[in-house]
Amino acid sequence: MLLAELQYLLSKKKPNEQYKAMVLQTIALGFYNNAQLMFKILEENQMTIPFFQTWLQFMPEFKKEFELRRVIFGLISILRCPPEAYPALV
C-alpha cells in the first residue's frame, strides 16, 4: 500500500505538499521500524534513488516538530543499519 502511494507521489507533476510530506514521513517511520526491510522493498521495486531524491529535495519543507522528529528517527535508523543491508547505490 505504501509503495503504491510512493509511486503515485512520484508520478504526479505537482502533488499536494501535505500529501507529499505525509508519504515521506510514513516511509521515514518505516525505516525507523525496519530499515533493512524498507531498503529491500524500495530496491526490489527500483524506487531507492527516486525516493531518496524526493526525500532530500523535500527536506527543507519539514517545519513542524513532529515532522522533523519522524524524519530524524528515519535517518538515524538508516545510519544504524548494518552496511551489508544497504543497496549498492546507497
Helix content: over 70%
Low-pLDDT runs of 5+ residues are none
Q: Could you tell me the number of beta strands?
A: 0
- The average pLDDT is 88
Distance between the termini: 24 Å
Q: What does the largest sheet look like?
A: none
Tally of helical runs: 4
Order of helices and strands: HHHH
Shape: globular
Alpha-beta classification: mainly alpha
Rg of Cα set: 12 Å
- Strand content range: under 5%
Give a quick precis of the structure.
Helices cover 72% and strands 0% of the residues.
Question: What would you say this structure looks like, in words?
Answer:
- The chain is an all-alpha fold and 90 residues long.
- The chain has a domain at 31-85.
- It is 72% helix and 0% strand.
- The chain is built from four helices and no strands.
- The chain has helices at 2-11, 17-44, 48-58, 65-80.
- The longest helix has 28 residues, at 17-44.
- The two termini are 24 Å apart.
